[in-house]
User: Fold this.
Amino acid sequence: MSTSDNPLIKALPPETDYISYLTILEYNLTVEQLPILHGILQDGTLTANIGWDLVHLLLPLLPASQQCLQDVSRLGNPREVVLKVTELLEGIAGENDEDVEEDSDGQGDEEANSAGETKAKKLEELSREDIGVHVHGEDTAAVTSQSKKSNDAPAKALRFTALLEMLSILHPRIKTKYPSRFLSTSLQAILPAYMQVATRPEATESVLGFIKDLSGTRRPKLPPRKSSSAIPTQSVPQSAPDPEGQDGIVGENEANLQSRLLQSFLTYVTEGYMTSLVADEDVPGMAWCCRYQEKLHPEKTVPGRRTYSSLFSDEESLHGRDAIMGHILVSHSRLFWYSQADYVGARSRLEDQRRRITRSHQEAGGCRGR
Assistant:
């Protein structure tokens, strides 16, 4: 099929309206069509109108659809796409493994068959319209077979990390007087979904990356550098402005409120990660107490038995726990930072307290001497 005969290109607006084009995308979108869709989504006006309704279509095609999801995050309407992403995160949080198994044992097949037949009928109706897109019988059968495989979705962790990467792009794009309202909604959707995938290291890393993107200091982009050699330079994709953005300053105390929201969120994430750690080779969680005991009293270690410290340094899975916990602690130090005035004030208070204790001890010694 040539590019001009491709249904995704042939039915582009203004040949069809946006709703009809979304319907055509739903029935024709496959992994092979993703490169074409990536080129189509470079149209900012089109992506702003249909991007919010593409997320749930692209998510089952991961990881191949990662680039298209990034296009939706950069060029789609950020407010609409954020709401769609939080809705999908709530869906991940509500998934039950037992329900998925039951659906795969017959009932899910029946529903997939009926859904496929319904889609095939709708496709036939659309093909009769004068929109220049004809659906053959083989294409209808392909849609039916594709709907039967709809239950073969990517792993929860893969979908979770992809949605969090989208939120990292979407939230800075939203220009409103009260950005904390959007942030609080997203955090409430992320936390239950994270509890479902907390055992996956990539899920925790994506959460920490999301926090860093929203709380860290943003460096300005470097200007392009002219080089005498013919080295190709990679252009950084630009994000579209918020079409509903409000010009003006951010509400009073918004920065502090967002910081406190992220601090509370990180605290719950830390708790969720710690509780998700299962015993690996009789190692309880992070085994901090055991390792500290070995460091403090090495003479009490059992000869011939591997110490917890050696296990955490040699075993890849346990070493990964230390690495993730280190990243969590770095995020804590970045969020719960203090200004220089706070440090000076804390130091002066400690010195005053130390002087009072020393003075009270001296007075107590003088009373005993009398």
Remarks:
- Confidence is low (pLDDT under 50) at residues 100-109, 126-153.
- DSSP finds 17 helices and no strands in the chain.
- Residues 3 and 128 are 22 Å apart (CA to CA).
